Amino acid sequence: MTSVARGMFNPLQMREAIVGFLREDIPNFDVGGEVVGSAVCKAKFFVKSPLVIAGFPFVDEVLDALGCKVVWAVNEGTFVNGSSTNRVVVGSVEGPANRLLQAERTALELLTRCSACATYARRCVMTSKSKNTNWSGKVAATRKTTPGPFRAVEKYGAIVGGADPHRYNLSSMVMLKDNHIDIAGGIAAALRRTRELCGFSIKIEVECRSVADAIEAATGGADVVMLDNFTPDAARKAVPEIKKKFPHVIIEMSGGINDQTVADYAVDGVDIVSIGLITHGPPPVDISMKITPASKL
């Protein structure tokens, strides 16, 4: 079965990150692994809650690093309607018993976290057009992720769920937030210096606390204006005014938005609605791995 975007990862960095996870979990020795031995066993991944399954590239790498192999029963991005009474098999694994057990926790953490992000992203995307079916914008994640290699897991989950990943790090797009602007001496001054440093090839986004801020940012050359912590009513009034003067500027709505309120911000003229919960606080999902002993194969 296929993954959504396996080819986007640097294979060397992927292996390095996965080996780092395994080293952290097995810093010296594994007594339990010695107890069970190395006879070849089989295992299955069971989904026990409704979710969008995601994280195949990471789990594949964990298992491969420990000499195990997995065959997925569904395509990544598939909605799986599992429950505690209806456990759905999404993958079958084979390998030495000790290696399967050494892989289990790391693989499950990657699979469940990525699937949780994908599931919440899918929910937000599906809900976004419930009040305006003609809305042509995108739901996006934010940079609120777990630091380190796990950032890629959460961003990938957002992609699998159908959301825009937004910027990956501080180097991928310049975002001038309130603290930048206050320290730099205002929007215009911050924008001038930013453009001098990043050149034409990097987009600049400015966090705006009012329509006046947004107009000043667009006038100064911002590619994206973020209307931060606007109410839905305030957004509906502000967006047409900004778009009329600057039709090519991207408008992003952000700040406290979730799957229950995203549709209120999906109004004509809004290009992006960003939701931090997609990567930093999605509801948990339930996936387990059950091994069949070699004696029962």
What is the mean pLDDT? 95
Helix content: 40-55%
Question: Care to count the β-strands?
Answer: 12
Separate helix tally: 11
Q: Any idea of the CATH topology of the largest domain? A: Aldehyde Oxidoreductase, domain 3
Biggest sheet features? 6 strands, parallel
Instruction: List the helices and strands in order.
Output: HHEEHEEEHEHEHHEHEHEHEHE
- Per CATH, the architecture of the largest domain is Alpha-Beta Complex
Strand percentage = 15-25%
Which structural class should the secondary elements be placed in?
Answer: alpha/beta
- Overall structural domain count: 2
Q: What strand order characterises the main sheet?
A: 6-11-10-9-8-7
Shape category: elongated
**What is the level 1 CATH name of the largest domain?**
Alpha Beta
CATH superfamily assignment of the largest domain? Answer: Quinolinate phosphoribosyl transferase, N-terminal domain
Cα-based radius of gyration, to the nearest Å: 22 Å
Low-confidence segments: none
Termini separation comes to: 24 Å
